[in-house]
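Now read these lines:
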Amino acid sequence: MKLGYLTHLAEEECRLAERIGYDCLEVHGKWQPDEIRNASACKAEAARARALVEENGLSISAVALYNAGPVDVKKAVTRYTAYLRMCCELGVGVITTMSAGDPKLGLDENLKAFAAVFSKVAPRAEDAGVRIAFENWPGLTGTFPPFGSVNVGFTPQVWERMFNEVNSDSLGLEFDPSHLVWQGIDWAGALERFACRVYHVHAKDTEVLKDRLSANGFFSTGWWRYRLPGYGCVDWHKLTSILKEHGYEGGVCVEHEDPVFSGPRREEGLRKAHAFLRPLV
């Protein structure tokens, strides 16, 4: 496994990652399809990105394309196709993304839109030798039930339906245990069950503030918060043990959303996450 963190692709981030001792980065390229659609432009941009990470002794574990919300099938297919080409030029084997979703529609309708996109994208990913990993972020809208979501693939039950809708080994998960913790889902059981579909991992934890939960209930706010690994509920020894048992060798990347170590303390947080996780990966 390679230890990294999620960030935009920039020289200062590559230097920071090298100073701390990370192996890789999951990068937000933020490339527009038109910028990388033709072969020469794609090759030039990939060469720039490769040089940036390699001169700092790093690699790219995944290219992030996080697109939530209602789906425009034609635009989505165009964008994934461009990013597949970029991954081939970069020598990167994973695109991290989201299943997306229209919060005004039900699950069945959203899964039809998912299938419309990935029935076209999955064969292209297979041909390119690139895997697409969906993050299980609950993109909930509103504060009271009934909820909608701009990213429907956030529970094991829906993952199963997604992979049944489009039967391709190119489609899998970017497994993030933090999102499962506050839903009350057995993250370890889910990881065991879907281990063969885990193509990238987010190292992020969740702290549950039990006094606030017991006082105000599940549908209130402020009873949980995202934390760096080691400051929440996840047993990271167990998580990495499950990954190793199933032969996982991909990226384990910190998604730093910890409010305690934010702002001017961001680097401190990245250092603490590295020190905690390094012995485990």
